[in-house]
Amino acid sequence: MPKHDTDLRLRRGYHYLVAGLCLLYSLTLAAAALTDPTRPPQLSPTTVQKRSMQQSEYRLSSIRIRSGSKTAIINGQNVTEGQSVGEAVIRKIEPDRVILSLNGVRREVPLFAHTLKKQYSKVP
C-alpha cells in the first residue's frame, strides 16, 4: 500500500474523530440547557427551600398556663415570656399561640398550624 493512501486514511480518520467529538460536545450543551417543562415558572428550588425554612424556623410544641405561670416549648426549648429562642424574644404566651419579636417584627407562632375545616356544635 503506498504511503499516500495511508496518509489519506489517517487524515480522514482524524476528520471523523474531530467531527464526532464536536457532535458529542454539542449534544452535551443542548442537554444542559434543558429545563423541566412541568416546573411552575415562579418557583425555583431556592425559593421552595427559603419558604420551608421560614415556616419551620420556630416550632411550637406545647403551651402550659398555670396560675401566674406561662411556659411554652419552642424548638425543644422550655421558655417563658421575656426569654429568647434563637434571635427571637418571647413577647406573650397565649393559650393557642406564642407571640415573638424577631428583629423588631411581631410574629405569631400557632400551637396548631392546621386550620379547622368544620366546627361542630355541642350535643344537647
Structure description:
By secondary structure, the protein is α+β, with helices and mostly antiparallel strands. Among the domains are: 33 residues; 53 residues, SH3 type barrels. 33% of the residues lie in helices and 29% in strands. The protein is built from two helices and seven strands. The strands form two sheets. It has a four-stranded antiparallel β-sheet, with no helix packed on it. It has a three-stranded antiparallel β-sheet with strand order 1-2-3, with no helix packed on it. A hairpin with a 3-residue loop joins strand 5 and strand 6. The chain starts with a helix and ends in a 14-residue tail after the last strand.
Summarize this entry quickly:
This protein has 124 residues and is α+β, with helices and mostly antiparallel strands.
